[in-house]
Amino acid sequence: MNEKAEARNGNERPRDDGSEDDDGEALVGECTECGQVYSLQTGADGSVVPLGTDGTCQCGNDEFEPLSGT
Description:
Distance between the termini: 40 Å
Structural class: mainly beta
Largest sheet: 4 strands, antiparallel
Mean pLDDT: 75
Number of helices: 1
Shape: globular
Helix content: under 10%
Strand content: 25-35%
Low-confidence stretches: 1-21
Number of strands: 4
Strand order of the largest sheet: 3-2-1-4
């Protein structure tokens, strides 16, 4: 089965670089209000959203800052 067929069936394959085959880059970041850390995903439009939520932090804030690796 090719990658496009697998995506239609909901069976996403990891890319060669180890990331998931999805719309944006996955990264770690924090809420700009309370500092809660989340796994984030960047959308095609550059927006950053926490995974596994309705798009907001548990404190109600909807702005997140990616953490740098430095």
